[in-house]
Amino acid sequence: MSEAYLYEFLYRGRPAGSAEAPAWHVVLGRHVTPPGASEAQFVASGALTPAQAEAAGFPLSAVLDGIDAAALAGRDAAMAAAEAARRDRDEMAEARDVAAAARDAAEAERDALAAQLAALQAAPAPAAPLPAVSDRQFFQALAQAGAITPDEALAAVMTGVLPARIEAAVAGLPAAERFAARMLLSGATAFERGHPMVAQLGAALGSDAAELDALWRQAAAL
């Protein structure tokens, strides 16, 4: 048999000015296992007057304390459930924001890659390197461009004598570089567009990189 507990409390109030005092009663409950039974059964005491309730160990003060404790426990449980729900909601919102940020980052990365791909597709193909040209092609192209005379072109190919403008360009180099420059320009049988001497020679002749490229293409076609 279990201990008795407060099962029901009924309070009957009275209107203001009533001569009749408020009244209350309680119903106690307990669980009893009858002889031969395997499960306990609920048994109610019936309505007890205040005197009967106090005699059973349930004075009004204890009854009210029990009701207050149960009400506060219910309130605390409800508040705890609400707080747990709020935390769950906040965690879901945070997870949603993280997922949205990851999605935005992935979309931004995808867009950046697409832009890079589009730029690569739109970029012009790199120009093929200009071929080497022979000394004959080189000096003939200079003569056709008016940079040197035809006679100077023939002399450069036949005897290695440098045209006047090219000789002046070589003379303007530092003394330590002049011999190597004359050997290259007089004795080379082929000229590379990328050789450093070409840029120096072009500057002396007043030609920029684009003009030298055009001269090289013209020479290669001769």
* Strand segment tally: 5
Distance between the termini: 122 Å
The biggest beta sheet is recorded as: 3 strands, antiparallel
**What is the string of SSEs from the N terminus onward?**
EEEHHEHHHHEHH
Question: Which structural class is indicated by helix and strand composition?
Answer: alpha+beta
pLDDT < 50 runs, ≥5 residues? none
Mean pLDDT: 89
**Strands side by side in the biggest sheet:** 1-2-3
The helix content, as a percent range, equals 55-70%
Describe it.
With 222 residues, this protein is α+β, with helices and mostly antiparallel strands. Among the domains are: 5-58, no CATH class; 133-220, no CATH class. The longest helix has 63 residues, at 60-122. It is 59% helix and 14% strand.
